[in-house]
Amino acid sequence: MMKEARMTHRLSWVGGIVVAAMGGVLFWGLAPVESQPEQVVEVVIKDFSFITKQGTLRLGLPTVIKITNEDAERHDFGSTMFEGIPTKMEGNGVIVYGRGVGGVMLDPKRNAVIRFDMERPGRHTFRCSIHPNMKGELLLLSAEAV
Q1: CB of 116 within 8 A of CB of 82?
Q2: pLDDT at residue 88 in the model
Q3: In what order do the strands lie in the sheet with 111-117?
Q4: What is the pLDDT of residue 35?
């Protein structure tokens, strides 16, 4: 007959350090840093159009643009909004980092993710260079809270 093993654990905060006691073994490490929430923009490419869903975008916060190509054609998502800004783009199994990354190519039925910090207010246009009639924009307003 098998005996049921029970593991007990206890977490304690000691001056910014997490101390965990598990089954008589002591583990410790730095307390988790509360990260800023990401602001997410969803862009769907469908019927040779960009369909954008976004909430209010704020300056200086981590921003994620999730792009999905639902068409049977290849498209790209390119913009000058990333110029000079550290950007990470992930798509088709490839990850690109840099300050001069201009966009990402999307094969049919594929998606991509772009990560950066919003640093410049205004209208940020994007387009498909393969199909010049495909255009869209993100609006980032800079307003002080009252």
Answers
A1: yes
A2: 92
A3: 49-54, 39-46, 62-69, 111-117, 87-91, 94-98
A4: 59
